[in-house]
Amino acid sequence: MNVTDRFLKYVKFDTKSDENTGVTPSTPGQMVFAKYLKEELEALGLTEITLDDNAYLMATLPANTDEDIPTIGFIAHLDTSPDMSGENVNPQMVDYKGGDITLNADKGIVLSPTQFPELNDYVGETLITTDGTTLLGADDKAGIAEIVTAIEYLKNHPEIKHGKIRIAFNPDEEIGQGAHKFDVELFGADWAYTMDGGAVGELEFENFNAAVARITFQGRNVHPGYAKGKMINSIRVANQFASMLPRWETPEHTEGYEGFYHVVGIEGSVEETTLTYIIRDHDRARFESRKKELEHLTRKINAEFPGVATLDMKDQYYNMREKIEPVMHVIDIAKQAIENAGVTPKVQPIRGGTDGAQLSFKGLPCPNIFAGGLNFHGRFEFVPVSSMEKATQVVVEICKLVKG
Fold it and tell me: Which residues of 204-216 are buried (b: 16+ CB within 10 A; e: fewer)?
């Protein structure tokens, strides 16, 4: 089966994760998908296949040489983003000739290079898009399809000599919990690669330091006709807090190595309001400074409205660069593999996170390679077929290049 056919099958599984369930996997659809993949890997003849109760699926393509070659791994995640529905995904194949792509005529939803200029890079290619009502799921079902297709290719071409290759598919990456219960010792690889990047050519070994913060504001509700000097409107206090953060340090105003504060949720009434932020920065010192700023602003609010604001903040993951730099040969191999696949490597920082960051800190160096998709987490997501094919080839090339 080719990578496109696999991908089109995989996106039919609803695997949207949910940070509020408190269980792993956070949604039952991820286990359904994992069981399907387990059967597929068994049919391919892989060995050491394990699927635990938390939906961590692992398998092995055994070495086909007596050479002493390091064990390497490839990893992708089962879940899709909670930002938009992944149910009843209806992918569309588009032979792109330029200009606007009508995703949904009835709803007037259009994918346009005016808003998404990266489309211009794919004129003349076949794109897989959404129908405008869901996300697509290329993040990261494209990565899964590429890994499985590459492993099948290696299995069918024993003339390509390689060491032991481990693969793993894990739940809940999109809610920052994908690596929490990943058994690095059981996986048993010397290093690995997540196939979870974006556009063709991307190779990443730097990511954001990340934290999540929830600020809860307790109000006091009084009849508005008699509220003077008595009411504390928690919605208004929350708005005051939000306006105190730097206006330009938000995702829509930053790029490259620039960090940000990003409000991702607001829920409230006069009596109680909660703001949820994610804090991101590549530089560890600036990251710590951003967290201190939230603490400072909470104190300022409480100075004006005593005891109103409560801050709950926790770190999510850190920049993997410090764990990759001592083993830069894993990056050199990936760069050569990308070049061997006829693609120019684009080494850049991840403006986000990946399971590889947490895994690197758990002792498994794990940089990130492109899976080919663009505009993740929403209705305008798409993936060029050629990008998935190139990513599949990169996996094969890495396996060729790793020697004893």
Answer: bbbbbbbbbbebb
Chain length of the chain: 404
Residues assigned a catalytic role: 79, 173
Cα–Cα–Cα angle for 158, 161, 162, rounded to 5 degrees:
115
- DSSP states of 176-244 as a string? T-TTTT--HHHH--SEEEEEEE-STTEEE----EEEEEEEEEE-B---GGG-TTT-B-HHHHHHHHHHH
DSSP one-letter code for 80: B
**Each residue's pLDDT tens digit, 194-243:** 999 999 999 999 999 999 999 999 999 999 999 999 999 999 999 999 99
Q: Residue 235: what are its φ and ψ, rounded to 5°?
A: -65, -45
Identify the band that residue 404 occupies on the pLDDT scale cut at 50, 70 and 90. confident
Q: Which residue from 335, 346, 340 is spatially nearest to 393, judged by alpha carbons?
A: 340
**H helix runs in 305-381, sequence order:** 321-324, 329-340, 355-361
Secondary structure E strands in 64-149: 72-77, 92-95, 101-104, 109-111, 126-129
24, 173 Cβ separation under 8 angstroms: no
Q: Give CA–CA dist 11/92, Å, rounded.
A: 12
- Tell me the C-alpha distance between 218 and 80, whole Å: 34
User: Which residues, 6 or more positions from 346, have their beta carbon under 8 angstroms from its beta carbon?
Assistant: 199, 201, 202, 203
Which token pair is 372?
């080919």
